[in-house]
């Protein structure tokens, strides 16, 4: 089982969309996939039409439910939903002895998934720390813009600090460019800057701007299920193939 955190410490960078559609693409080729919604905003849960659930990741992290007990299913994927109660979890976890590894411990009994994909909150919090420590690898979703480089610095510093303090070896598998308009020269300049200044892989795949990806959550679906022939669906399918080659 490979666990991957989809991360960016800035909102609106395609984390949730990437988690959902990478998962959906993998499920369509018969991989067993679990999606974890670790964001108190619950955008992943909402985007897949999970609006009416009795228990959530908050109950798991507070030790009141086992992870297997809260799972729903969408598009052949298992989904661990989240809601605003996750905000309360942060306060409660602050006093726990193993506060940073609650999610890691909750995942241990689950061994029959090929991939666990974690949609992280857009901030550095105890929830993000739990997601990182439960993960083998990290994928950074990123708009190829100048201001995104500041956020990239923060993410890399965070991962380095976590690895040092907790004696881990969490690896950044790569940067996935999202919301890409190839006509913009700036995209190529940002890519060159990253190549020259960071020891990071930028995936060959990239996700183009596409209105269908924005529409899909209104229908409680991934864009792959909603509009399988759209640019976004094609891009995520291509990314899933590249992802599999790295994780096979």
Summarize the structure.
With 248 residues, the protein is of the alpha/beta class.
Distance between the termini: 11 Å
Biggest sheet features: 7 strands, mixed
Structural class: alpha/beta
**Whole-angstrom Rg:** 17 Å
Strand order of the largest sheet: 3-4-2-5-1-6-7
Low-confidence parts lasting 5 or more residues at pLDDT below 50? none
Provide the residue-averaged pLDDT: 90
The fraction of residues assigned to DSSP E strands is: 5-15%
What is the strand tally?
7
Helix and strand element order: EHEHHEEHHEHEHEHHHH
Q: Total number of helical segments?
A: 11
Helix content: 40-55%
Dominant shape: globular
Structure, explained:
The protein has about 250 residues and is of the alpha/beta class. About 40% of the residues lie in helices and about 15% in strands. The protein has eleven helices and seven strands. The protein has helices spanning about 15-30, 45, 55-60, 85-95, 100-105, 125-135, 145-165, 185-195, 210-215, 225, 230-245, and strands at about 1-5, 35, 70-75, 75-80, 115-120, 135-140, 170-175. A seven-stranded mixed sheet has the order 3-4-2-5-1-6-7, sandwiched between helices. Helix 1 (about 15-30) crosses helix 11 (about 230-245).
